[in-house]
Design goal:
Elements (H helix, E strand, L loop, with lengths): L1 E2 L5 E2 L1 E4 L10 E7 L17 H5 L4 E5 L9 H4 L8 H17 L3 E11 H12 L9 E5 L17 H4 L8 H6 L5 H4 L6 E4 L9 H13 L4 E3 L13 H19 L2
Parallel strand pairs: 4-5, 4-6, 6-7, 7-8, 8-9
Antiparallel strand pairs: 1-2, 3-5
Length: about 260
C-alpha cells in the first residue's frame, strides 16, 4: 500500500519468482490493467498471468490505480474528468514507493506493460510524459493511441462517460487526455512493442498502426505484432497465446537482462 492521488491509499500486488532470494536483485515488470474499471485480483487469466511473468526472473508490481474496482465508488470514479490524471499520479507514486522500499529490484532494468485498451492507453500516455523515461522499454497490448481516431470503432467506448460527452461536447477534455496530441508525441523516446488483435471491435487496428508509425517516425526502436483473427487482449487461440508470450518475453529480456 502507498499514498496515491488525492491522499487515497492505493494497493498493489508484488509477485516474486519461486526462486526469489532476498540478497539478489531482479528487473521490474510493471503491469497496468485494462478498464479503467477493472483491477488486479485473484482471478485466472491466460494472458494476464502475473505468476508466469514473475517466473521468468522478474519482480511483478501490479498496482490497482485510481479507477480500479473493489475499493468503493469514489475510487472507481476517480478517472472521470481525469482520465489519465489520477491514474498517472498513482503510477508515479507506486514507482517512488518501489524504489524506496523494495531494494531487491533493479530500477534501472524496468519495463512497463499496459494490457487492454486502457492499459495500452496509459502506456502511450507514459511515453509522452516523464514517467515513461523510467523504463527501458514498454509494451502496449490493444491500447488506444488517439482519442479522436478511436471514434472509428464500431462499438461505443465508455470513454464518452469518462470525458463528459463527445469531442464536440467537451473538446478541451478530449484534447487534454489524448496521447496522440503533438505536444506529447514530441516527448516519445522509449522503445515499445505494440500488439493489437486484428478483429478488436473496441480498439481498431488503426490505433496500433498509428502508434507504430509515430514511433518509427521519431526513430524509436519499436515492433508491431498483429494477431490475425484475434479480438481483444485475452486471445482465443492457443497458438496466439504462445506467440504473444514469446514476443512479450523476448522484448522484455532484450532490454532488461542484457
Amino acid at each position: 500500500m502507498f499514498p496515491g492521488a488525492h491522499g487515497r491509499d492505493v494497493y498493489a500486488w508484488v509477485i516474486k519468482p519461486s526462486f526469489f532470494a532476498p540478497d539478489q536483485k531482479y528487473p521490474l515488470a510493471y503491469l497496468i490493467h485494462d478498464g479503467p474499471h477493472e483491477s488486479w485480483n485473484r482471478a485466472w487469466s491466460v494472458r494476464r498471468n502475473l505468476a508466469l511473468l514473475a517466473e521468468q526472473g522478474y519482480i511483478v508490481v501490479a498496482p490497482n490505480i485510481a479507477g480500479s474496482t473493489g475499493y468503493g465508488q469514489v475510487f472507481a470514479d476517480a478517472t472521470r474528468y481525469s482520465y489519465a490524471g489520477a491514474p498517472y499520479t498513482d503510477l508515479e507514486r507506486c514507482i517512488e514507493y518501489v524504489e524506496e522500499h523494495l531494494r531487491y529490484i533493479y530500477m534501472s532494468r524496468a519495463v512497463a506493460l499496459g494490457l487492454g485498451s486502457y492499459g495500452g492507453y496509459l502506456v502511450d500516455w507514459l511515453q509522452g510524459h516523464e514517467l515513461g523515461r523510467r523504463f527501458r522499454s514498454l509494451v502496449s497490448d490493444n491500447g488506444i493511441f488517439s482519442l479522436m481516431t478511436h471514434l472509428s470503432a464500431p462499438v461505443r467506448h465508455p470513454i464518452f462517460h469518462e470525458l463528459r460527452g463527445a469531442p464536440w461536447d467537451n473538446p478541451d477534455e478530449w484534447k487534454r487526455w489524448n496521447p496522440a496530441s503533438p505536444e506529447y508525441l514530441g516527448n516519445w523516446r522509449t522503445p515499445q512493442l505494440i500488439i493489437p488483435g486484428e478483429r478488436n471491435r473496441l480498439v481498431p487496428i488503426s490505433e496500433a498502426r498509428a502508434a507504430y508509425n509515430a514511433l518509427r517516425g521519431r526513430g524509436i526502436e519499436c515492433s508491431l505484432l498483429v494477431l490475425k483473427g484475434e479480438g481483444g487482449s485475452e486471445g482465443t487461440e492457443p497458438e496466439d497465446v504462445v506467440l504473444w508470450y514469446r514476443a512479450v518475453l523476448d522484448w522484455m529480456e532484450r532490454f532488461t537482462k542484457g
